[in-house]
Amino acid sequence: MMQLRTKRLVYSLTDLEENIDSIAYQRRSLHFQPFFKGLMIGLRLNRRILLNGLGLLLMGLGLIFSIELTFLDRLIQFGFSLLNAVTQNIPSSYLGIILLLLGLSLILWDQNRAGGSVAISQRKNSIKRIERMPFQPLSRAPKIVAIGGGTGLSTLLQGLKAHSSNLTAIVTVADDGGSSGRLRQDLGMLPPGDIRNCMTALADEDQLMTQLFRFRFQQGKELKGHSLGNLFLAALSQMTGDIEQAIAASSKLLGIQGRVLPATLSQVHLWADLADGRRIEGESQIPVARGKIRQMGCTPANPPALPDAIRAIETADCIILGPGSLYTSVIPNLLVPEIREAIAKATVPRIYICNIMTQLGETDDYSVTDHIQALDRACGQRLFDSVLVHQGSFSGRSLTTYAAEEAYPVSCDQRAIAQMGCQVVQDNIMDVNPSTGHIRHHPQRLAKTLLRWYNAHQKSPVAIG
């Protein structure tokens, strides 16, 4: 037994020595690669010059022979006469030196051109390598937790996935309208719509399965309005008996970059107390009520958080709230006590992405300050250090489109926000639909602005592609 172990050790050491020698040889060979590469390029250049010169010479001779043969004799005689005159008037020693210098000058000039060609070729190759080289592996990028729901969160994830695979989306499960609401009522499952949107945002856009998950039936008494992705999640939930397993299986199928987690597994129903004394129940009914919201809550009152969501917040490098509908997408996640407590305890950078436009029935006439105060009221404390606000002009078409919907740009009073102890981050993060004038956050601009903000809080900044 001891001999066998000894032999294995000897073989292992031999393999290690061979590997070390191989690596050393490769490293030595790397020093000669530029030389051989330049030599080969130079040879190719010289071959081309020689072939071109030979071709021109043959063409010239062919032209001379085709015109008149005696002309060639006269040209040769003139050459010998010129050479004889030069040798008679210039001493041979001086003539030799002149010819040597002339030849050396031509060689140096040619080598300089060839070297320049090599340098240009190497520089082009270096540029190509830099273009192909990622700024840093996505798996080593910051751990980002994004909290929200609706199209706002999926838009954010679509931009962030190009910079990090360490993404966790914590999604509201309070939706009770549309396809999600029907499945929730019929099957008693968590609403899958926002979860599905986030998964497809983190998946490959061109993948067939991603397109199928986004497909929505336009016909059929029972199927009309349903998303195929919602139905798929519903089927997997019934097969596995667990929405978590259904999400995990669907995520693998889509090959998403990151994780999507529901804020809670409880069947949450939202309610809102309005300024006129009414209490409106149901996420889809709150904007329709057209009242000023004073207080938000949910039933059950203190839903337990998904443990994985809490762990994601506790290990995050930065936490992002929004964008999305303030009262029906962002705040519902914060009504889960463990989630808001985990965010409050976090010492990493935290930022809220404010909406660009007001929303009818939720944030009528709201400024950025009003958005911040609404979050503070819902949580009983400040949960973020910074707020990201769009900075830029609006087209007349967009303003007209939104005015018809009684929605307007969210105003920003930087002084008032600073007095609240919150940093204002401003940038052009808007994307406009040219045909309708509707405004959304631009995924790529939004992601790059957030990474610049994150870098400003770090000793070791991350690269931004």
The gyration radius over C-alpha positions equals: 36 Å
Beta-strand segment tally: 12
Q: Give me the side-by-side strand order of the main sheet.
A: 3-2-1-7-8-9-10
State the shape: elongated
Extract low-pLDDT stretches. 1-43, 114-135
Report the span from N to C terminus: 56 Å
Task: Provide the succession of SSEs.
Answer: HHHEHEHHHHHEEEEHEHHEHEHHEEEH
Number of discrete helical segments: 16
Beta-strand fraction estimate: 5-15%
Q: What would your notes on this structure say?
A:
This protein is α/β, with parallel strands linked by helices. It contains 16 helices and 12 strands. The strands form 3 sheets. The chain has a 7-stranded parallel β-sheet, with helices on both faces. Helix 4 (150-160) packs parallel to helix 6 and helix 10 runs parallel beside helix 12 (337-345).
